[in-house]
Amino acid sequence: MPIKIPDQLPATNILRRENIFVMTETRAVSQNIRPLKVLLLNLMPKKIETETQFMRLLSNSPLQVDVELLRIDNRPSKNTPTEHLDTFYRQFEAVRGRNFDGLIVTGAPLGLVQFEDVIYWEHLQDVMNWAHQHVTSTLYICWAAQAGLKLLYDLPKKTRKEKLSGVYRHQVNRELSKHPLLRGFDDSFLAPHSRYADFSPHYLDEHTDLDILATSNEAGTYLAATKDKRNVFVTGHPEYDAHTLHDEYHRDLEEGMEPVIPINYYPDDDPSQPPYVSWRSHGHLLFANWLNYCVYQQTPFDLDTFSASNFTLDE
């Protein structure tokens, strides 16, 4: 089944060229199907690139997904045309009174910024608190995972001395291998990271009640979830395109930051060679599992009847 997105969204033609089933709003209105309503809060600067990446992953499911785009505030963007934002993105006030099956909060280039110094921190807290009463399951990506842990568990910001950049091998937690989010996973898998945030498995295990589902010796915790599956934390970037880490590496070079070459990304660690993708299948499986087991299997058929009190912990 397809994702349903606006007819003129740039991602529509990009995904069609990749042979991905995209249903425009025009066609969707003729079908008597209850699609999943998923809200994408896009905090990344290059919004068109990021929205396309996430819609690619949301498309790989037998479920029909109706994606709506949300912006954190109305400040002008340096990397996204104002016309695009005004046409395709909603302000939070426009959705505050509605319920959604899923919410995805993207990463943001704020790894070295303290939470209280983030210009939209209070607004983001407002959205996350709202989600508890209006969203079946929320997926926090990279920096958003750190922000979510601060909100839900009041964990202080922990920062690595050097940026973690590259594609790292992870292992599933064998004691939780039957968790729905891990269905179909290999015992080990690859996923990209690009962050300063530090997610120590020992620290999270000691200070939260999260199910820690996958970790890496180098990258720390990768995948974790609350017992009721209503909050899922992914510390890496399974949505990244083949060249995203490459572009970030060269951006940092141009800014004089002397970045480390992304690990396990270029053939022979040679930045002059085209990078290769080794994480795509994992990314699609992760998102398909989240949509199915954390959203579709949990959400009410009638979203108007949604209530946070209806969710109980798995036994």
Automatic annotation (TrEMBL):
SUPFAM superfamilies attached here?
Answer: Class I glutamine amidotransferase-like
EC number annotated for this UniProt entry: 2.3.1.46
One Pfam family linked to the record: HTS
| Annotated positions binding substrate | 163, 194, 251
Q: Could you name the active-site residues? A: 142 (acyl-thioester intermediate), 237 (proton acceptor), 239
Q: Which GO molecular-function terms appear in the entry?
A: homoserine O-succinyltransferase activity
Classification via InterPro entries: Class_I_gatase-like, HST_MetA, MetA_family
What catalytic activity does the UniProt entry give for this protein?
L-homoserine + succinyl-CoA = O-succinyl-L-homoserine + CoA
Where, per UniProt, does this protein localize?
A: Cytoplasm
What keywords are assigned to this protein? Acyltransferase, Amino-acid biosynthesis, Cytoplasm, Methionine biosynthesis, Transferase
Record's keyword annotation contains Amino-acid biosynthesis: yes
Question: Which top class of enzyme applies to this chain?
Answer: transferase
Q: Does the keyword Transferase apply?
A: yes
Site, Important for substrate specificity: residue positions: 194
Residue numbers marked as site, Important for acyl-CoA specificity: 111
Pathway noted in the entry: Amino-acid biosynthesis; L-methionine biosynthesis via de novo pathway; O-succinyl-L-homoserine from L-homoserine: step 1/1
Role summary: Transfers a succinyl group from succinyl-CoA to L-homoserine, forming succinyl-L-homoserine.
Cross-referenced NCBIfam families = metA
The family assignment reads: Belongs to the MetA family.
Name the HAMAP family for this protein: MetA_acyltransf
What is this protein identified as? Homoserine O-succinyltransferase
What does the record give as the organism's lineage? Bacteria, Pseudomonadati, Pseudomonadota, Gammaproteobacteria, Vibrionales
